[in-house]
Amino acid sequence: MTPDRAASAPADAGPGSAAPWWVPLGLGDRALGVSGFLAMIAAGLLLMFGLPMVVELFGLVQATVFLVMAILALSQGFIWGYGGIMSFGQSAFFGLGGYTYAVAVLNLGDSSVPALLAILVPAGFAALLGYFMFYGRISDAYVGVITLTVTVILFNVMNSTAGDIYHIGAAQLGGFNGMPSVPPLNWPGDPSNALDPEALWYVTAGLLIVVYALLRAILASRFGRVVVAIRENETRATLLGYDPRLYKLIVFAIGGAIAGLAGCLFTNWGGFISPTVFGLAQSAQIIIFVLLGGLGTLLGPILGAVAIQYLISIIGSQQTLNANLLLGVILVGFVLLVPQGVVPAVRSLLRVGR
Amino acid sequence: MDVIGLVAFDVLNSIAALVLLSLGLGVIYGLMRVINLAHGEFLMLGAYATALATNQGVNLWVSMLVVAPAFVGLVGLAVERGFIRFLYGRMIDTMLATWGLSLFIVGFITTVFGTTVKGVAAPLGEFSIGQYRQSAYSLFVIVMAVVLVAGVWLVLRYTKFGLIVRATMQNPAMAAALGVSPARIYMITFGLGAALTGLAGGVLAPISGVSPTMGSAYVAKAFITVIGGGAAIVTGTGIASVLFGTINQVAAYETTPVFGEVALLVSAIIMIRLLPQGITGRFFRRSL
Q: Nearest residue of B to residue A332 by CA position?
């Protein structure tokens, strides 16, 4: 663990903070306590059932993709903010999940098994890659470069699969044109009863709440505490008898599974997937979600994803400002000026005010 | 026989391109441990400077060999003064900030020039290998790669400036005690790396075409070559370029160019796993 990681990760329960002594160092959201957790879930449920009453269907469809990105941001926030793993290629698992779902559902018809595969295939791939990296004791920065390279490889491969010879079963891969008209999720066992856009909103919002709760549960468990301990000081954790390689591998695989789930929902949302999901721009966005919202929190990445997606949708409709330009400024600005992100910064402000 | 000559020429070309792509990065990363994710965009800026200057009526060779490195070198200096210098020793933060810079540059160029711009044609005509015609400009690219590698090596090895740079990178505190300003040396080194990258972008512009997003195609390749090379910048980058360039071109010849590139990246990842310190971390350890 390099000093800079420890410095940039917010130590919520550090000296002088309001958290009681039994809250472990650096556990981020745990400082909120049980009541905070229940409040978060309640807010999530309120949003899930409240939003369809106040916005039109168009707004709901847009909000759905915001939440898909929020799930994706959670995967990055978990492995980076808590596991200390600097993945620059979370879009690899996102895209893999999307493609797995598309290929499987075009072959099988019913969407239950494909949705499951869209989680398991990226998780398996992440486990393989994690084994390769962590058991090779590759340093933090090189993990970044390798994950980035893997994303570039997937992009190149998928981009070149145009033409009739590239197909998996009945599914044409389509190369740079992508795979159009992918069937949406349906009620399990009944392919003719597909989910409409409103139902997809409930599914997506519900899954976001489930993923959030799951991650909170993981972080509160013994396993989660060891993961954070490894982030804080890998050598010390090793000397206490924990194997950082195994813990990092599991964290990375969980992150891959969540990103795969987001990819599956993304394919569902548009009924379409193309190699741009593997692009560097996509990877950069995921990093920005987390950095903007706050490292070492779960709420931060969710808010960051929604804020950035909202911003991009506004820019996209106005055509005056290039999205890359703005994202670049945000990324540089946050690294230099607010390296801990918005949510931790606001929290420490609140504490000072108390 | 002709085919063998052709493949050999293509392999040489692929190696030369890798050397050009990664040498500037090798200087910045190898000497300063700064992972500059805007490297691809520096290449792109070099290509743009070349194309725009040429289209304005400047001689192609002047715009390629003078305008491009001068412009990108200045950009590099500005970037170093602007924010890289606040982030020394914070590797991950540097990667993130330079990634932001890379997005910013792509967005800026797209806003100003649009998504396409008139490129430059390769000069010098053709020559033949047996029955195959080849662009003579490719020969120039190979020569440039050799010249640049030799130049960087000579400067680092034999000039007083090279000595000071190497000393500063090894022990900044000691260098400062002896009257060198490390901050100034960092700035110059970063600027030089950027200028080399700009030159490479200019030289590659007639081959690769010019577009705002061209950088992303190169950044992973350049990184993996430099990291695969290891601590000794010139020797390491050279050997890694030869190895990966050969793999790339042979695989591309057997299958398609895309899979050639994939073979390059996959073999590089495997090599980082086997030799985390790079080739020169294990072999040729005393080289430069």
A: B97
Residue range of the domain that includes B271: 2-282
> Residue A342: inside a domain, yes or no?
no
Number of domains in chain B: 1
- Best residue of B35, B81, B96 to probe chain A, by most A CBs closer than 10 Å: B96
pLDDT > 90: percent of chain A = 28
- Residues spanned by the domain of A233: 3-276
Chain A residues within an 8 Å CB radius of B103: 281, 284, 324-325, 327-328, 331
What was the ipTM of the complex prediction? 0.82
- Quick one: DSSP state of residue A189? T
Contact A133 B273 (CB under 8 A): yes
Which residue, among A180, A198, A181, A214, has the nearest Cα to A74 in the 3D structure? A214
- Residue A337 falls inside a structural domain: no
B287 phi-psi bin (left φ>0, alpha ψ -120 to 50, beta other):
beta
In a domain, A295, yes or no: no
- And the tokens for B154? 């000579």
How does the average pLDDT of chain B come out, rounded? 84
Residue A286 belongs to a domain: no
Q: Please, which residues have CB within 8 angstroms of residue A240's CB and are 6 or more apart in sequence?
A: A229
Q: Tell me the per-residue pLDDT of A26-41, one tens digit each, with 9 for 90 and over.
A: 444 445 577 778 888 8
Which chain A residues have a beta carbon less than 8 Å from that of B111?
A: 321-322, 325
Q: Where are the alpha helices (DSSP H) in A109-221?
A: 112-134, 140-159, 197-220
* CATH code: domain of residue B224: 1.10.3470
Number of structural domains, chain A? 1
pLDDT tens, position by position, A232-280:
888 899 999 999 999 999 999 999 999 999 999 999 888 888 888 888 8
The CA distance from A182 to B36, in Å, is 39
